[in-house]
Amino acid sequence: MGRKPAKSKEKRQQRKEEIARISASQAVVNKANNQEDPMSPFPVFRKFEKSGLTAVLECKPCGSLDGATLDWIFDLEKRNMKALYEACEWGWNEKVKKEEMTDDRAWYLIARTPEPESKPVAFSHFRFDMDFGDEVLYCYELQLEEEVRRKGLGKFMLQVLELIGFSANMKKVILTVLKHNPEAKAFFTALKYTIDETSPEDNVHEQYHYEILSKMNKKLLPS
Ligand SMILES: CC(=O)SCCNC(=O)CCNC(=O)[C@H](O)C(C)(C)COP(=O)(O)OP(=O)(O)OC[C@H]1O[C@@H](n2cnc3c(N)ncnc32)[C@H](O)[C@@H]1OP(=O)(O)O
To answer: How many angstroms does the Cα of residue 7 sit away from the middle of ligand 1?
Structure first.
């Protein structure tokens, strides 16, 4: 066989570069997942105090949560989200949701009232993961008990997620929001989340009941 045409050589080179880029991104994700406590560099963010609410934050991998906390997490998820899931084609599948929420890759940011009560009042399920070839912090859930909403705790927790994600060199913080959850949409918009490039666009054949929002890590944006 003769020499390969220059074009296929170029393509091979591009493929090689893409594979190298993806494996470098995967290494960044692995490093983030190997942390013991992603909040440890930010001790001042462990305490939230505003609008008469005091909360203490902790960040743990799913595997190290106790049974009572996991039960509360799933119960709050169900109280907040079941009806919204049932109102669209996702539906509510308890088994599938539990599997997702207890996946080995799941991390949790949890806010509790101060000791001795230590009652959990809010959680975020998040992951350091690859998404369309990019390293991201994916916020799967941000859920607050009704009595602690509109006091700035959600904003504080999302900012902590950004701090954790960006300091671990994730390209963006990304999340999925249901279009028929206007309160959540208003919240993420207020916090400057915009439609991500991977968010599906409605067309004549298909309409989507969700959108994907993100905030980029400015530190990593090309100048
Ligand atoms: C990726 C996902 O998890 S999507 C699902 C999100 N979770 C839910 O829908 C569960 C139920 N809701 C909640 O848990 C909470 O209300 C959250 C997470 C949506 C918001 O957290 P909160 O602590 O209540 O919001 P916070 O007080 O920090 O609000 C920050 C800003 O967001 C906006 N905002 C928050 N809630 C609302 C709302 N209901 N309507 C309009 N704007 C809102 C406001 O601009 C607000 O600032 P302001 O209070 O100074 O006006």
So the answer is: 52
| Cα 1 to averaged position of ligand 1 atoms, centre (Å) | 64
Element (H, E) at 129: strand 120-131
Note the pTM of the prediction, 2 decimals. 0.95
Report domain extents, the chain.
38-216
CB–CB of 107/141 below 8 Å?
A: no
Question: Is the distance from CB of 122 to CB of 110 less than 8 angstroms?
Answer: yes
Give the chain's radius of gyration (CA, Å): 20
Dump pLDDT digits (tens) for 104-143: 999 999 999 999 999 999 999 999 999 999 999 999 999 9
Domain 38-216: assigned CATH number: 3.40.630.30
User: 146: helix, coil or strand?
Assistant: helix
176 contacts 210 by C-beta, under 8 angstroms: yes
